[in-house]
Amino acid sequence: MPLLEIKNLHVEIDGKEILKGLDLTVNAGEVHAIMGPNGSGKSTLAYVLAGKADYEPTAGEVLFNGKNIFDMTPDERAAAGLFLAFQYPLEIPGVATITFLRTALNAQRKKRGEAELSIPDFHKRLYEAAARLSIDRDMLRRAVNVGFSGGEKKRNEILQMALLEPKLSVLDETDSGLDIDALKIVADGVNRLRAPTRSSIVITHYQRLLTYIVPDIVHVLSKGRIVKTGGKELALELEARGYAEYQEEVPA
Amino acid sequence: MNAEVAIIKTAAETALAQAFSQARGRLPGDGAIAKQRAAAFDVFAKTGLPHRRIEDWKYTDLRALMRDAKPLAAPPDAAAKARAKTAGALLGDVETRRLVFVDGAFVAELSDVAVLEPGLTVGSLADALSNGDPTLAAHLGKLAPAGDAAVALNTALMGDGAVIRIASGSTIARPIHLLFVASAKPAASFVRSLVVVEQGARAMLIESHEGPAGSDYQVNAALEIFVGDEAHVDHVKIIGEGSDALHVSTLAAAIGARARFNAFTFTAGGAVVRNQLFLKFDGEDTVAGIRGATLIKGRQHADTTLVVDHVAQRCQSREMFKTVLDGEAHGVFQGRIVVRPRAQKTDAKMMTRALLLSERAEADNKPELEIFADDVQCGHGATAGALDDDLKFYLMARGIPRPEAEALLIRAFLGEAIEGIEHAGLREALMDNVVAWLKAR
Q1: DSSP, res B300
Q2: What is the mean pLDDT of chain A?
Q3: Fewest Cβ atoms nearer than 10 Å: which of A207, B412, B432, B439?
Q4: What is the CA angle B193-B247-B355, rounded to 5?
Q5: Same domain, B323 and B426
Q6: In a domain, B14, yes or no
Q7: Is the pLDDT score of B198 beyond 70?
Q8: Considering the domain boundaries, does residue B395 fall inside one?
């Protein structure tokens, strides 16, 4: 059974159709890249998988581990192993990063019927993961993303991913706004989670990130549908030739 | 009788006049005090209960909200005193020196007054009034605005309260806790306290109000604080009255030079609450933090009315009030900052935020700046809105269920105000009250 199966997905926002019959199958252990021009529906796909309100699926289905995700609330999807690294991580004044992380991890464990982590065990895991991402402890005591630089926010997303150990990570333009050093740190965080049981969908506009996170399969998304699928060489092709040839009207 | 006196109309006003005429002979204090009471009642009798056409009471129409006036509380019986022993849970395990008042009367046997730190003097107002304590002549009624109807009623009918003096240079490490508890009887209590903190002294004063649910008792409490030069005073008021109570309270303070003054009000109880603060910066270079957190639901009405009067120069004040409203609750914030002509280099910033958890809740906000000096920094900001859906989604996308996500955001919202309290144990106790409120939502 595939880990994720998207069949003929149509999604509207405010009555405007953004995804127009998207099909995608992700098997356990695979890393998929989804590339495409601005406005093709990449972020919409990310948000609809995570369960954002106002993203209205009008047709088709999405199965995660064989279960219809539209029957699940965003927190249930997260507990089932779905993770979205936000393109624009939100600032939460008054909530310390460390509190946020512990609340999230324990909520997921509780939902799965697992025991809560003790505070020393949690700290051990957290500090190890943070050190690998060059996140200092002082940052963990600060309010979530408040006063963080763009790069720090993205690293904080990857830290959350590393702690929560999702089955499927969806990274929405995680490379945007990162310098090359930060990009390598982020890529390392993603690669570290690669395992036969885990999968990722890396959404990006540019090939650059895919030098460090080498995908198994590359898709081109245009006007709400996957219009081409290939191997990792497709990303290099797109980098060289641009998206122009994919932006013509797709036959309905 | 003076011809200008308005005819007292409502049942509550009639009952208050009767209560005063019956009680004036036995209320403590004679001579000057009796005259002060009579003059105060005249002020009240002329205006009656404040109503919506009185600007300062625009959103809290006491004439409509106060359907009747309860009889003055009788001295507490043994059963009432026994029940009061379990009071004060709102403060968790914060170590304090307790002064306990049951139905407005000081109860020495429940209070911790046997051994006092050097420099601390504590007594009951009833005793001070009866004994003609000279402290009262010098201070009582000097700060609370005599023209305010609630203050006037308090002055006319004050029965008991605390009189505290902290001698120059003394540091009182243990917070002094004025614990006001109402018994089950639906009565009215008028408590008046006076605190004089002399030059360079340091103290923390906690004032808490609680009572049984389901009893429509009435509390009118007033506290006047004199903060000397270089003194450091923290005042925290916790309004945790029973579900049907009417609570009107006033804090009036005059703050000397180079002092530090922090005031915090936590409001979670009561059917109708009016919390008034009148703070006057009399000396230069003083720093003050005036904050509050209010949590109301159902049909609760809570009004915070603040007047900050900058008289002297180079003082800094920060005002931050946060209100969380659920159900059909009605929250009011009126904040006026006055900067007098001599108060150059004043730095005052006021922020009020209301978080509406229900579409039927209402938050009214009236900030005012009256600036008569030309070299000042003053500002105010106000927001009212629901919880941010995007933030909620972000938390839920990490596996946090909706109720927990909301609770986390509400705690963070109030935390910004509560963090201003310097006493760590008290901060935790108040956050525990917030968590309990959220659980009961």
Answers
A1: -
A2: 93
A3: B439
A4: 115
A5: no
A6: no
A7: yes
A8: yes
